Automatic annotation (TrEMBL):
<keyword id="KW-0238">DNA-binding</keyword>
<dbReference type="Pfam" id="PF12833">
    <property type="entry name" value="HTH_18"/>
</dbReference>
<dbReference type="InterPro" id="IPR009057">
    <property type="entry name" value="Homeodomain-like_sf"/>
</dbReference>
<keyword id="KW-0804">Transcription</keyword>
<dbReference type="InterPro" id="IPR018062">
    <property type="entry name" value="HTH_AraC-typ_CS"/>
</dbReference>
<feature type="domain" description="Response regulatory">
    <location>
        <begin position="3"/>
        <end position="120"/>
    </location>
</feature>
<feature type="modified residue" description="4-aspartylphosphate">
    <location>
        <position position="55"/>
    </location>
</feature>
<feature type="domain" description="HTH araC/xylS-type">
    <location>
        <begin position="237"/>
        <end position="335"/>
    </location>
</feature>
<dbReference type="InterPro" id="IPR018060">
    <property type="entry name" value="HTH_AraC"/>
</dbReference>
<dbReference type="InterPro" id="IPR011006">
    <property type="entry name" value="CheY-like_superfamily"/>
</dbReference>
<dbReference type="InterPro" id="IPR001789">
    <property type="entry name" value="Sig_transdc_resp-reg_receiver"/>
</dbReference>
<dbReference type="Pfam" id="PF00072">
    <property type="entry name" value="Response_reg"/>
</dbReference>
<dbReference type="InterPro" id="IPR020449">
    <property type="entry name" value="Tscrpt_reg_AraC-type_HTH"/>
</dbReference>
<protein>
    <submittedName>
        <fullName>Response regulatory protein</fullName>
    </submittedName>
</protein>
<keyword id="KW-0805">Transcription regulation</keyword>
<keyword id="KW-0597">Phosphoprotein</keyword>
Amino acid sequence: MYQVMVVEDEQWIRGAVVKMVEKLGGAFEVAAEAGNGEEALQAIYQVWPTIVITDIMMPVQDGLWLVREIAERRLPVITIILTGYNEFEYARQALRYDVSDFLLKPVLEEELSKALEKAKERIPQFHKLRQYYLGIQLYFDKITEYDAQSLFEEQGGLVSRIINAADLQESEKNVLLRTFSGKYNELIQSMQPGYARIPAAAGGRAEEIRAHFLKLTEEWLQCYNAMTSGEMRQIIRKVCDYLQAHYHEELSVSDMTQRFHISVSQFSLLFKKYTGQSFINYLNALRVQQAKLLLVDGERKVYEVAEQVGFQSLPHFNRVFKQMTGQSPKEYRKWLSV
């Protein structure tokens, strides 16, 4: 099954594209949605979709920014651009970022199907790299859960797997090592303003590369130990209280970081450490729990329940609800015999 992400700020267009993908079925399923390029990039590192379908014109960060970030970071993601007649010249700039296809709005189901099949042909070239990227992401997802000894062991094992990978070319190893190093530097920089990035050691001798990542891990531990104070616990507690009261509103990581004056990287790390879940999983769990209570009321339509608890589209609500409960909202209601 190939995971698809749909990125579009206009909810009705996004919902229409999501429905088309789900109607096509087969090898494709929608794994995530986003309203702008910044949200989408954050979600990519959590969901790791195979294909991203993105609008070109969006607020905050647009689709051109997103496909450029995907290309420059060498992420194993295939991109498809949505564009209007008056945006096509602008969209053509995306050609330099190895976009798979362009779809003219309003999107036709037949054209979408062709674009997805075309994208599928490119998937094998990303498969082997994808496994290593997932390993890097898993390391950062769990970085706050490791004690110092485990952290050094996990980091050392990951670096060794990349250096010694028989199925990778040297250029591919260098890309992976630069990605690993870059994410580490970004993480430390977000916690320690003024931090001087440690230059990537990709391309050097194995001993130099291992020493480079050892130093990064030491820097991270120093920053993290200084950051996890009582004040930070209070911030996350306030965030959780806010979500409990405002779960039905349209919320994002950016909203929380601006409201509570904390960097995105700090927020993501601390939220996971103190709640045991990512922000989006925590918020979705709140919404699904409230939806269960509302579904008991047989007078409400399922789409009304979805809107009331904060989901922007019915397909998204159905997908998240089933992921979390094992049943669709209609199946859950029937199970309750409502």
